[in-house]
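ok so I'm stuck.
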Amino acid sequence: MRAHLVLGLCLAFSLSACGRSDERTFTLQGQVLSLEPARKLLTVKHEEIKGFMPAMTMPYEVRDTRLLDGLAPGDLINATLVVVSNGAYLSAIKKWDRRRSRSRHPSRPTLRPLRDSSC
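replied:
not stuck anymore, here's the structure
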């Protein structure tokens, strides 16, 4: 009887752990380099994500393509990077104007837009 109770408790704990989310979120600030709505991808040159990764350029999945509406290459964005056990994606993407933001948020880091070197 006791073995069945222990086995039942172990099974209950293991099933409850299966539903647990190991989701972590980080704030991402960067510049849009390209958008691929058909592939649900947004390539961003972003600043360091403290406690997670250094500044770099990379494509990110966007699960809701409506978040890409109104974005264009060169736009500066703030977004939430959601990291899950099998990948990552961007959510809560907001475009911001650094000229207006500087007056309201003087401590915000300044991103420098990329310049087109082909001109």
